[in-house]
């Protein structure tokens, strides 16, 4: 929105960068060529650090510096205006886990689970005898590897917030490379001296610029001054838009707009609620396009509450996250819901736990924000389906008890071992062995078998031989019998003899097995130990080769990464190379529009053609180099793949051998493997294995050395190309300056001639008018003379004589007539001169118009285009595209 001049706060900043593009020809803007590195002189060593160190001894902080301001009370009501700007803040940097915060109409709500604290931001403003000293520092971690980055600002401003000196530094790590940028700016004798440094690891480039600030009214504010400016505007209750200029670490001049909204906000950060927060929006423009937009919330005292950037997931906040206690006073709603039998005692007794009452309690106890917010929205308002209603209360389910039955113990058998107590005697064998009387024929065997008792029933089929063999069955109510006791005891004797025979063989086998086991075990253990030692030695050898391949693979991977970075740098250089080509072509195209006689083949035209030819040659060289890089990258990746393939095989072999070395007879993973002894026919010899590994390493090392040589060649190519392009650009600009100066001199000469011509034309027109008046003035004299002569012609008779008076009248008429003729001749001559002057004016005006158009094309168009000429750093591929 447009603002009147009187609406700006009265801070006497006398800087103006609005006419930075309209640089005069008096060399007020001196920018050294980028390829000429700026060398710091001894007197330049007295920089911002030395100045601030000298000023610190004079700083006398007041007691109010450490005073804790009460919120919602403007600081200017407690302090004077200068002391109100002095402050010391310790802020926190957090990263949003989601894309954006939860926003409501009047509330900015940040929950602890939405943020991850990653760093700190410190601001300190002290009072000096003639102004303010600003200190600012930040440190944070980013990325998966927690890479550290940060910045620091140290500056000094006068009582009117005008820049005296400031130094800013930022550092970051990108692909294991430390990138550090710094800007040192100071005002000396009405001139802004800016020194910029860019360091990538140990490579440093320095640039210097001098800008004449005299006569400029716009505001120049750097980063440290922005902290002072925002606090100054907030404590003075400023509302609306404030415009200023700034300079970033890349040396770009930014046009900025600071918007302070009139409406106050109510903001919540974690458990802290801030009333009447002031909303500030800071927008930075580069070439009329927004480059960065940030928003801030301030307390009326000027203390920063919250700050965040658009398109970034980082915020700076004043309040630290609320630390949850171990036990909550209010029971967890989800626990209450799932343990419904516990909820009944409280819910039915109170009957007031609803969404409205819970939200009211939530607003009254902001310290429970993080804990209860999700429950209020998801549990109370949207009740889960898997949760029982309150009315379905019941006693808790108890686990059933299971009893393990006791096992009944078997009783001892009391079956007698023999028929008499002397059963162990050989003459009296046990009852289950054949008895002496068993050798005699038994009468039972000669008679048919009958029933044991009178209860036998049923039908029995038997043959006549059953009586002889004793095998005919006799069936009664309780049993069926087939053999006699003699036969049973004979069978037992046969079993005992067989048992003794087997026992004898077992004892013999036990002895033979024991001796064989001792002998074979000793042999197997010895062989296994020798094999283990051999495999351990082999595993160590494979591990050594694996480590060597790991080192070679890492070196090749680093080379591929470095070569890819150089390849990207080369691509950037090719892209940037299109900028000077477009500038040169457009300059030639613009100069073809020169009118009429101004269309000459001058020095700028020839140098522009030479510049195009040089750029074309450099582009062809860079394209050829890019093709070489692509081919080399393919070779590098092939070599790395070969190394990784060999390393993978050796890693697997090393792991297998390591596992085999660790195997013993007590391992849990050993088993029989059928076909394990088979020797595959494709197995290589040990000599070829070693030759293969050595040849792989040698060929890959040759490929890497070739890649290193190509990278070194690229560096020299880009440096030489940037030097040649910038040198030719300087020649073109010098030719343009000379041509512009010559055209300006010619234009000045023609303008002076036109001024003289117009003056002479005006004088001629005045003279013509004067001559006309003179001729008309002679008519009266002629009339007098002729009237006198006519009157004398009426004299009577002899009185009408030709006397001397008559002769004098005749001479008078002749004199007047000759004078009029002379005046008419001069009048004609004046008219002719007037015509020539008018023609000359037309020619001069046309020439001036042609010269002005030529000057406009060369100075305002071509030189403006060439002001965007890329630097040597950009041409070398270091600048971002």
UniProtKB/TrEMBL annotation:
Coiled coil region boundaries: 740-767
Keywords carried by this UniProt record: Coiled coil, Cytoplasm
Transport keyword on record: no
Region (Disordered): 407-440
GO-annotated cellular components: cilium; cytoplasm; microtubule cytoskeleton; nucleus
Top-level taxon of origin: Eukaryota
The keyword Cell wall biogenesis/degradation belongs to this UniProt entry's keyword annotation: no
Record-linked InterPro entries: Tektin-like, Tektins
Subcellular compartments: Cytoplasm
One GO term (biological process): cilium assembly
Family: Belongs to the tektin family.
Descriptive protein name: Tektin
Organism expressing this protein natively: Glossina brevipalpis
Classification lineage: Eukaryota, Metazoa, Ecdysozoa, Arthropoda, Hexapoda
């Amino acid at each position: 929105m447009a603002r009147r001049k009187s609406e700006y706060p009265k801070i006497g900043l006398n800087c103006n960068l609005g006419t930075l593009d309209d640089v005069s020809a008096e060399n007020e803007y001196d920018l050294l060529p980028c390829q000429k590195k700026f060398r710091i002189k001894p007197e330049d060593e007295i920089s911002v650090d030395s100045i601030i160190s000298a000023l610190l001894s004079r700083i006398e902080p007041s007691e109010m510096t450490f005073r804790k301001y009460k919120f919602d009370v403007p600081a200017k009501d407690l302090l004077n205006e200068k002391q109100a700007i002095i402050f010391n803040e310790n802020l926190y940097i957090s990263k949003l886990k989601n894309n954006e915060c939860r926003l409501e109409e009047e509330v900015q709500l940040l929950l602890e689970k939405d943020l991850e604290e990653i760093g700190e931001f410190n601001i300190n403003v002290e009072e000096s005898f003639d102004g303010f000293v600003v200190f600012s520092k930040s440190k944070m971690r980013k990325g998966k590897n927690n890479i550290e980055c940060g910045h620091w600002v140290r500056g000094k401003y006068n009582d009117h917030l005008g820049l005296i000196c400031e130094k800013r530094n930022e550092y970051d790590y990108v692909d294991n490379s430390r990138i550090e940028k710094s800007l040192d700016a100071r005002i000396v004798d009405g001139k802004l001296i800016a020194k910029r440094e860019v360091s990538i690891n140990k490579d440093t480039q320095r640039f210097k610029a001098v800008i004449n600030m005299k006569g400029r009214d716009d505001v120049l504010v750097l980063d440290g001054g922005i902290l002072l400016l925002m606090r100054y505007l907030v404590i003075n209750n400023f509302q609306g838009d404030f415009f200023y200029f700034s300079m970033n670490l890349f040396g770009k001049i930014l046009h900025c707009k600071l918007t302070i909204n009139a409406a106050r906000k109510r903001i919540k950060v974690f458990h802290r609620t801030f009333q009447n927060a002031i909303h500030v929006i800071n927008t930075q423009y580069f070439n009329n396009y927004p480059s960065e937009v940030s928003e801030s919330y301030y307390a009326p005292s000027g203390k920063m509450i919250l700050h965040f950037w658009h398109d970034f997931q980082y915020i700076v906040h004043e309040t630290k996250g609320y630390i949850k206690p171990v036990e909550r006073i209010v029971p967890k709603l989800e626990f209450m819901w799932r343990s419904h039998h516990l909820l009944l005692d409280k819910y039915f007794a109170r009957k007031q736990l609803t969404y409205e009452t819970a939200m009211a309690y939530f607003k009254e106890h902001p310290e429970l924000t993080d804990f209860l917010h999700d429950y209020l929205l998801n549990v109370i308002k949207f009740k889960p389906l898997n949760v029982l209603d309150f009315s379905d209360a019941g006693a808790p389910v108890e686990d059933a008890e299971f009893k393990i039955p006791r096992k009944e113990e078997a009783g001892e058998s009391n079956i007698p071992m023999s028929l008499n107590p002397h059963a162990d005697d050989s003459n009296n064998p046990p009852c289950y062995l054949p008895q002496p009387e068993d050798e005699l024929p038994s009468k039972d065997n000669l008679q048919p078998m009958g029933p044991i008792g009178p209860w036998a029933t049923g039908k029995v089929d038997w043959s006549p031989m059953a009586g002889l063999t004793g095998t005919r069955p006799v069936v009664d109510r309780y049993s069926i019998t087939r053999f006699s006791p003699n036969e049973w005891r004979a069978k037992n004797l046969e079993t005992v003899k067989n048992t003794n025979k087997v026992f004898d063989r077992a004892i013999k086998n036990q002895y033979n097995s024991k001796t064989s086991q001792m002998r074979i075990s000793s042999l197997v253990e010895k062989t296994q130990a020798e094999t283990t030692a051999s495999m351990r030695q082999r595993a160590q050898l494979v591990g050594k080769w694996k480590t060597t391949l790991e080192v070679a693979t890492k070196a090749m991977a680093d080379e591929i990464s470095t070569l890819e970075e150089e390849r990207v740098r080369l691509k950037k250089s090719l892209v940037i190379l299109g900028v000077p080509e477009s500038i040169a072509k457009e300059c030639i195209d613009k100069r073809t529009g020169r009118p009429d006689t101004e269309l000459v083949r001058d020095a700028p035209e020839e140098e522009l053609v030479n510049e195009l030819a040089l750029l074309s040659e450099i582009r062809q060289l860079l394209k050829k180099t890019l093709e070489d890089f692509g081919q080399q990258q393919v070779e590098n990746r092939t070599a790395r793949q070969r190394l990784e393939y060999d390393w993978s095989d050796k890693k697997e072999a090393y792991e297998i051998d390591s596992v085999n070395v660790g195997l013993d007879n007590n391992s849990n993973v050993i088993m029989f493997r059928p076909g394990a002894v088979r020797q595959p026919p494709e197995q290589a010899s040990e000599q070829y294995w070693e030759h293969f590994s050595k040849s792989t390493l040698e060929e890959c090392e040759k490929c890497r050395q070739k890649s290193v040589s190509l990278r070194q060649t690229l560096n020299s190519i880009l440096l030489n190309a940037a030097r040649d392009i910038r040198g030719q650009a300087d020649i073109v600009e010098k030719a343009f300056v000379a041509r512009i100066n010559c055209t300006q001199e010619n234009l000045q000469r023609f303008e002076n001639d036109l001024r003289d011509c117009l003056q002479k034309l005006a004088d001629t027109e005045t003279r013509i008018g004067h001559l006309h008046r003179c001729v008309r003035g002679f008519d009266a004299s002629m009339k007098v003379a002729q009237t006198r002569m006519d009157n004398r012609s009426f004299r009577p008779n002899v009185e009408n004589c030709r006397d001397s008076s008559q002769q004098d009248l005749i001479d008078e008429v002749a004199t007047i007539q000759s004078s009029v003729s002379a005046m008419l001749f001069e009048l004609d001559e004046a008219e002719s001169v007037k015509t020539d002057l008018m023609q000359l004016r037309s020619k001069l005006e046309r020439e001036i118009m042609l010269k002005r158009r030529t000057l406009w094309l060369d100075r305002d168009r071509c030189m403006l285009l060439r002001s965007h000429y890329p630097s040597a750093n950009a041409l070398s591929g270091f600048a971002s595209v």
